[in-house]
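quick one
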Amino acid sequence: MDSTKLIKEKLPRHIAIIMDGNGRWAKKRSLERIMGHRRGMESVRTVVRECNDLGVEALTLYAFSTENWNRPRAEVKALMALLKRYIRAEINELHEKNIRVQAIGALENLPEDVLKVLQEGVEKTKNNSGMVLNVALSYSGRDEILRAVADIADKVRQGALATADIDEQTFSGFLDTADLPDPDLLIRTSGEMRVSNFLLWQIAYTEIYVTDVLWPDFSRDHLYQALVDYQTRRRRFGKTDEQIAP
Ligand code: FPP
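structure w/ farnesyl diphosphate:
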C-alpha cells in the first residue's frame, strides 16, 4: 500500500491492537501454537517500526491478558520466555529509536525474571521522548478499573481526595494508562468482533477496525489499510454531523 494515501495530520495519536489469531495461524500449518506466537513477534516488530516511523505517539499491544493465565502451562511458559527474549533482543534498538517502553496490567503476577527484564527496559527508556510502546501484560480492563477504584477509595479515606472531585479526568489519572491519550484506533486481527476486556474505560470513543487477517500475517500493508480506513471515519464524539462539519 502506498503511504502517500495517508493524511499525516489525521493519523491516530494512539493505536491499540488486540493481536489475535496466533494459534489459528499455527493450527492451519499443523504447527505448535507457540510457533504462531513466534511469528506474531515478527508482526510486533513490523508494527512497532512502522508506527514509530509514522510518528504515532503511543502504541498499546495486548500481549497477555489476565485470562491467558488459564492457558496450558507449557504455552504460558513459552509466551513468557518469548516476551523476555523480545525485550532483551529489541531494547537497544528501541532505545536508539527514542521509544519509551511501558507496561500496563497486574505486573506483579509476572514471573520474577520476566518482570526484571521488563523493568530494566522501562527504566532504560524512561526519559525517551519518542513513541510510547505500551505492552499490556497480565492485563484486563475490569481489573484495571477495580485497582483504580481501590486507589481512589484509599485516597478518599485518607482525606487526600474529595468524592465531589472524582470526575472523568481524575478517574483516568488512576488508570495504568494515566499518562496516555485515549486510543483513537483499536485494531483487532483474526475477525472476532469482541473487545475482550481490553482498555474498557479508554475505548469509549475509539474507532474499531477488525480484519480477518491473522496476527502473524499482519503486515505493513495491513496496518496502512487500517489507517486509511480510519481516516475515512467521521468522529462525532456524540455530536451531529452538522456540528462537526468544517
Ligand atoms: C492471541 O492469539 C495472542 C496472544 C495471546 C499472545 C500475543 C503475543 C505475541 C504476539 C508475542 C509477544 C508480544 C510482545 C509485545 C513482545 P491466540 O493464541 O489467542 O490465537 P487463537 O485465537 O487463534 O488461538
